[in-house]
Every structure is written in C-alpha cells, then in structure tokens.
Amino acid sequence: MIPGASTIPMGCAVLPSLFYLYSEAATEEEWRKGKIPTLKEVLERTDKTKLIINLVIIFGAVLGGVLGSYQGVLKLLKANFTEPCYVRLFTQTTYNSTFQVKNVCCGANRDINVFNMTDFC
C-alpha cells in the first residue's frame, strides 16, 4: 500500500521523464565523455513543449504518490489490530468471541436465505 503508492509513480513516471529530458539535452560530445548536463542546460536545450509535457507528468506523478502515501498512512493509523490467540497465552488477556451471522434474505417475500432456514428471515 505505502511502498506502491510512493515507488510506482517514481519508477513509472518521474524517473523515465527525467531520463528522457536529460538524454535529450545531452550533446553527442557529452555522451562520449560521460558528462551529464546540468539542470540549467536541460531547461535551455529542451524543446519547451516537451519540457512542459514532461514537467506536468512529473508533477502529477509526485502529487499522486504523495496523496497515495498519505492515504496509506491514514489507513494504517486507523487500523484496529488485535493480538493473535497464541500471544494471549502470555498476556493473560481474556477474549470473548462473539459470532454474528449477517442476515441476508432474498426473494420477493424476503424469505430465501443461504442457510435454508425458514425462521431465519
């Protein structure tokens, strides 16, 4: 949940866009020498339309990743965790199990259920 919300936008949108922008901005001579262009050179050498499209993609992916991560953290904070039964042996906590059957009745008269019991509905 959280790793996917933060890493998938980076790996699928942000990094490919950045790699594309930097590879487009590098000259043949720079490639041979292994020189990476600076951010200023990328902004100056890249076609403005391509630059705007890639920046929109990067911004959208970062925004989506931040919002997805935020939602994941909220879900983790609101989760209700209970200790497993084998841990209760050591904590001396009593556990009262309550079993509730969800009453789902169907049919025109609401008298059909999955348990085939007529007095259930």
Structure notes:
- By secondary structure, the protein is mainly α.
- It has a domain at 2-81.
- Helices cover 62% and strands 0% of the residues.
- It is built from 5 helices and no strands.
- It has helices spanning 2-25, 28-33, 39-45, 48-78, 85-91.
- α1 (2-25) crosses α3 and α1 packs antiparallel against α4 (48-78).
- It is elongated and about 85 Å long.
- The two termini are 39 Å apart.
- Keywords: Membrane, Transmembrane, Transmembrane helix.
- The chain crosses the membrane at residues 49-70.
Record the SSE blueprint:
Layout: H1 2-25, H2 28-33, H3 39-45, H4 48-78, H5 85-91
Search tags:
mainly alpha, 121 residues, single chain
Task: Report a brief summary of the structure.
It contains five helices and no strands.
User: What is the H-and-E element order?
Assistant: HHHHH
Structural class: mainly alpha
What's the shape?
A: elongated
Radius of gyration: 28 Å
Unreliable runs, pLDDT <50, ≥5 residues?
A: none
Percent helix among the residues?
55-70%
Strand content: under 5%
Query: Biggest sheet, in brief?
Result: none
Summed up, the helix count is 5
Distance between the termini: 39 Å
What's the rounded overall pLDDT mean?
A: 84
What is the number of E strands? 0
Keywords: Membrane, Transmembrane, Transmembrane helix
Transmembrane segments: 49-70
